[in-house]
Amino acid sequence: MRKIALLVTSGILSAFFASSCSNNNKESQCPCKEKKECAVNSEGKCGGCAEHKDHQQPSDSLPLDEKKAQYMRMAIDLSIKSVNEGGGPFGAVVVKDGEVVAASANRVTINNDPTAHAEVMTIRNACQKLGTFDLSGCELYTSCEPCPMCLSAMYWAHISKYYYANDQFDAAKIGFDDAFIYEELDKPIENRTLKRVQMLRDEALEAFKQWASKGDKTEY
After folding, report:
1. Helical packing angle, 64-84 and 2-17, nearest 10°
2. What share of residues in the chain are helix, strand, coil (percent, to 5)?
3. Which of 32, 44, 115, 166 has the fewest CB neighbours in a 10 Å radius?
4. Which member of 37, 43, 119, 139 is catalytic?
5. Rounded to whole angstroms, how far apart are CA atoms 112 and 24?
């Protein structure tokens, strides 16, 4: 049953990314138009095409709870694919008004970017797709409870609600333990492992003064 669920989920997610993929033929056209489907990889890009089976977003006729379960299965499917492609075991999906906006797996080791967590990557993709830095009204589905960095990113992006599958304790059991970050934040600043030094504040304040007086700034 799990294999079938993953195949169905892959088909749903593949449909979302079909418009941006291309195969290796001379026409550089996605065969999705010819009733094929894209094998989406952990970066959300076309990884080749297979025979078409299900080419739909979750149907509007589905009960809300089932639609949410399908969004979460997309995130879980991405996390599993990521492991097989050399990435971290995490995936995330952003949904707005019942439609998938963006999705990504963890890309830390693949991109050599310690900030490329699945939630952060998905937020970046969603902002680019929607042309805005404000994701109010969007919901995020993640295969694992977000770390402090990803949680902060969701607040900055104004994500309205998030859903998660594995929790922080499940992650800690396989070596992804965020507890030390929370412990560090609870410590007095002078006792933290990461030392800090303030310098050139007077010079740096110039940018803040210009920002405060700028009449046409875009606030966020």
Report:
1. 90
2. 45, 15, 35
3. 115
4. 119
5. 27
Q: Which residues have C-beta within 8 Å of that of residue 76, sequence separation ≥ 6? A: 9, 91, 143, 165
Report whether 149 contacts 131 (CB < 8 A).
no
Distances (CA, A) of 40 to 37, 100, 186, 199, 212: 9, 14, 41, 47, 45
Say which DSSP state 123 is in: H
- What is the per-residue pLDDT across 95-140, written as a single tens digit (0 to 9) for each? 999 999 999 999 999 999 999 999 999 999 999 999 999 999 999 9
How far from chain centre, in Å, is Cα 95?
11
3-state DSSP assignment of residue 218:
coil
| Whether 119 is catalytic | yes
The C-alpha atoms of residue 132 and residue 124 are separated, in whole angstroms, by 10
DSSP string, 20-57: G---SSTT---GGGGTEEEEE-TTSSEEEEEE-S---S
Contact 162, 141 (CB under 8 A): yes
Strands 99-105 and 138-144: unpaired
Q: Is the whole model's pTM more than 0.85, yes or no?
A: no
Catalogue the E-assigned strands of the chain.
36-40, 46-51, 91-96, 99-105, 138-144, 161-166
